[in-house]
Amino acid sequence: MALATPIVLDWSRRLGLYDQPDADRKVHDRPIPRTGGLAIAAGLLVPFIGLAFWGNDFSAELRQDEERLVAFIGGFAAILGLGVYDDIKGVGAWGKLSVQMLVGMLLWTSELRVSTLTVFDHYIDLGLWSLPLTMLWVAGFVNAMNLIDGLDGLAAGVAFFASASLFGVALIDNSPFLALMGAVTAGAALGFLLFNFSPAMIFMGDSGSMILGYVFAVAGLWSASKRASAFALGLPLVAMGLPLADTAVAFVRRALSGRSPFQADRGHIHHRLLDLGLSHRQAVLIIYGVCVALTATAILLRITEDLAVGGSILALALTVTVSTRIWMRRRNSR
Questions:
Q1: 45 phi and psi, to 5 degrees?
Q2: CA 50, CA 118: separation in Å to the nearest integer?
Q3: 3-state DSSP call for residue 145?
Q4: What is the spatial distance between Cα 50 and Cα 145, in angstroms, rounded to a whole number?
Q5: CB-based contacts of 229, cutoff 8 Å, min separation 6
Q6: pLDDT tens digits for 93-126?
Q7: Cα separation of 167 and 236, whole Å?
Q8: Distance CA 292, CA 295 (A)
Q9: How far apart (Å, rounded) are the C-alpha atoms in residues 132 and 310?
């Protein structure tokens, strides 16, 4: 990643592929190259391509899930293509959602799907409802990461902590594919963060944020296909809790105000922190802190499989976040 990003940065500058300032929604004040998602995609794909040519016990184990791997890579290519086209030409909200839904359908055909729900230790077979829920699962994660990408280093940092959670849980579950996915995603996010932390030299664009969201969506589905447990789908929801919650609140907020849920605004959590008087770096670091708590929560939930433990940590994280917001509001009102 640290090698690929400068190459993509130079290519973006040569072609004039910049994200222009927008006072109504965006917070940067100068044109920034926006094709960093290509570097992130390269960092994610290279290890898998290498395993295709280098045989070992690990690659042999992955080949046992060849159908799922093919579906994962096919969906990856579709989401990446959608993101790159959107970064260069622009794609409407419904066009993006259509592709995301089709990718969800592709994963469903390979049995990467939301097939059961757990209510008070009772498993409910979803039957045909599994298909629309799987499509919504994919679209939800993809759009959550896309919408949280609003400050320098924010989405990359969130992705790093979520992938650290994924890696830790995969080690506990002895899941080679998920461990590899967590490791390469953490490496890709961290390598990109060297060039994306404030002040950013390059943005990941929709291609980068949607690919990262897609990876976490697949991780949850893969885990559920291997481990029939309420925690299999729940842990990715915890690890990605902040962007998912921010997306849900944004959709409800826009719907209640009579606007399209896909209409961009400045009501996201990072915008709220800036409105409280925080600098870009301070806002990002506060969100990082919440992500660290969520990462610890997800790993402890897997170790203990005790909702009370995870709930206690989550409550603590929320308390700290709310207290910080109240303190900042009072400080600004003086």
A1: -85, -30
A2: 38
A3: helix
A4: 27
A5: 118, 305
A6: 889 999 999 999 999 999 888 887 665 566 777 7
A7: 11
A8: 5
A9: 29
Element (H, E) at 70: helix 66-88
Helix axes 230-239, 280-304, angle to 10 degrees: 160
What are the residues whose beta carbons fall under 8 Å from the beta carbon of 62, sequence distance 6 or more? 51, 69, 176, 177, 180
Q: What is the three-class DSSP state of 125?
A: strand
What is the value of pTM for the model shown? 0.84
Per domain, the residue ranges of the chain are: 4-333
- 173 close to 236: Cβ distance less than 8 angstroms: no
What is the CB neighbour count within 10 angstroms for residue 310? 24
Which pLDDT tens digit goes with each residue over 154-163?
Answer: 899 999 999 9
Q: Give the burial class of 171: count Cβ atoms within 10 A of its Cβ; 0-12 exposed, 13-18 middle, 19 or more buried.
A: middle
Phi/psi at 199 (5° precision): -80, 130
